[in-house]
Design brief:
alpha/beta, 7-stranded mixed sheet, 7 helices, 33% helix
């Protein structure tokens, strides 16, 4: 088992009702060492106070700028060799980080590892991912990245309010970095009606990401 420090970044915006259980599940990991960084993205509720009630949790506060900017603030503050992400309304099994860090230790050629998810009260309209058959797809909050790779990519594009995770994975693959998806469940997603992560993604987000990729390839003289 790896004993490298893992930084877990938790962006939150008005998530006080769910943040406590989310942090409890992170602090119950059977892996250590872990640092948990909560980034309060301009909440008007008690999110920051809830986070500060947990010993050892670092809390950053910023004006509301969206989840991508909040994650980037957490990445900048992280001191771990690996960076993981967690949404303030979700839960994780205690084995999540052990499973993923063991995989990364055994596969040094892989720079990001994701895993399966299970939904708590999913909506009936939630679709399955075409590639993996996963309900709601394979989510970024399941991911663990090697920190230097994540920083070399520039983190998330903060101009995206949704779809920033897909854009990051496009850039990850474009730059020759490999990622893997574990068969194990590493995330329990909570549906409550206000989830940004399952809001319909504007089609222009994907078009914009792919166009940016093509523009970079043309600028570097590569074929699409």
């Amino acid at each position: 088992m790896s004993t490298a420090l893992v930084s877990v970044v938790v962006p939150v915006y008005n998530g006080a009702p769910f943040l406590g259980p989310a942090l409890e599940s992170l602090l119950a990991q059977d892996y250590e060492p872990v640092e948990v960084i909560v980034v309060d993205d301009g909440s008007t509720d008690d999110s920051a106070a809830v986070a500060r009630s947990f010993a050892g949790v670092r809390v950053l506060e910023q004006a509301n700028a969206g989840p991508a900017a909040a994650r980037n603030a957490g990445i900048a503050a992280a001191t771990g060799d690996f960076v993981a992400f967690h949404d303030a309304d979700d839960l994780v099994p205690p084995t999540k980080l052990t499973l993923q860090l063991d995989y990364l230790a055994a596969h040094p050629e892989v720079d990001c590892v994701l895993g399966r998810q299970e939904w708590i009260d999913p909506p009936p309209w939630l679709a399955r991912d075409a590639a993996f058959g996963e309900l709601g797809g394979i989510p970024t909050p399941s991911a663990v990245f090697r920190a230097p790779v994540l920083r070399a990519l520039g983190g998330f594009d903060a101009s995206f309010r949704t779809g920033e995770d897909m854009d990051l994975l496009i850039r990850l693959r474009e730059t020759g970095h490999r990622y893997a998806v574990l068969e194990e469940v590493v995330l329990y997603r909570r549906f409550h009606g206000d989830n940004l992560s399952v809001a319909p993604e504007p089609p222009q987000n994907r078009i914009r990401s792919l166009k940016a990729k093509l523009d970079r390839e043309r600028a570097e003289g590569r074929s699409a």
